[in-house]
Amino acid sequence: MIAGALTFLVQTLGNLFAIAVLLRFMMQLFRVPFRNSFAQFIVAVTDFAVKPLRRVVPGFGGLDWACLVAAFLAEFVVVLVSYWLDDFPFALAGGGVWPVMLGLAAVRLLSLTVYLVIGLTLVRALLSWINTHSPLMPVVYGLTEPFLAPLRRVVPMVANVDLTPLVLFIIAQLILMLPIMALERALLGAL
């Protein structure tokens, strides 16, 4: 019972940190302005891990790749601790278990990224109905528009209702169900 609670705590805190670092990377990738309180909060929360990693992982193409490394390391720690708390026999498994654990961390980070896009799209849809002048709206708009704009070219408006968020939800769920779940099952089968 305590192991289950500790697993929950590690997964929650690790995933929240990974989400924060992914948000920081996505804000750089999509050129979202950092002159707002939400972006400054994300930078403040993640600086302790990103700044030291910058010494080892250089930026390239105007992006801070240390953010992705920090997110991956957070997920790797979550995977390791979760399996350790579940009494996985690391000592008996041998050296072949480490590539599987790294692969699981990468797949779970990919899955977390898709869930992040779903969550941001949901927040954007809610803010568009409730408060379009929210200080959070420019950030959410900047993070979701690269995913929704290409869909708008294909999906027509129906009675002045934009259905692209719904289409994005469906595509994201299919991505989670097919390639990501298949990768995770293949990796778990190797354990």
TrEMBL record:
Q: Which organism is it from?
A: Thiobacillus denitrificans (strain ATCC 25259 / T1)
Keywords assigned: Membrane, Transmembrane, Transmembrane helix
Under Pfam families, the record lists:
CCB3_YggT
Residue ranges of the TM segments: 62-85, 97-118, 163-183
For this record, an example GO cellular component is: membrane
Top-rank taxon of the source lineage equals Bacteria
InterPro entries found in the cross-reference section: CCB3/YggT
Keyword Iron-sulfur in record: no
State what protein this is by name: Osmotic-shock protein
Q: Tell me yes or no: is Lyase among this UniProt entry's keywords.
A: no
